[in-house]
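Per-record layout

source: Opuntia streptacantha
name: Hydroquinone glucosyltransferase
length: 161
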Amino acid sequence: TQPEVRICLAVTRSLGSLRDSLGSLASRAKVVALVTDVFGQDAFEVAKEVGISSYVYFMSAAMNLHFMLYLPTLHEEVKSEFRDMPNPICLPGCVPLHGRDFVDPVQDRASEGYNLILHYSKRASLADGILLNSFTELEPGAIEALLTDEPRRPPVYPVGP
C-alpha cells in the first residue's frame, strides 16, 4: 500500500476519537481552530460539528500548493496521463511545469494514490484558510498569485518557516 493511502486510513480511523476529544476540550477551554496537514482534511467535518474553524498547514513550496489547488481543474481538462501532455502547464507566478515532472502519486491517474491526492486537492476549498510554510521574499511570484482572490479558494496565509 502506498504511504499516502496508509496515512489517510489512519486519519479516517481516528475521526471518532478526535470528535470525542475536541468535544470534551471545547466544553472546558476556548478552542477556536483545528489545524491539519493536507492528509488530515477529513477532520474538517469534526471541526464544523464542534463549531470551530479549520485550517490546512501546507509544509511544501508555494508552487506545490498552487499545483495542488489547480489539480481538480487539470483533472477535468486533461484526459490523458499527465506525463503524456505535449505542453507544460503555466500556473500564475510559477515556472512552466511539464506533466512528466509532476510528483509520482499523480503520474498514474488510475492509482489509489492519485485519487487520494485529487480528493484532498478538492477538499482544500473547504478550509477556512491555508497556512503556507513560506514567505513572499522567498517565492514572490507564486505567493502573490496565491494571495489573489479566486472562487472556491480559501485565503492563503504565508507564515514562513
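summary: The radius of gyration is 17 Å. The first helix runs from residue 3 to 28.
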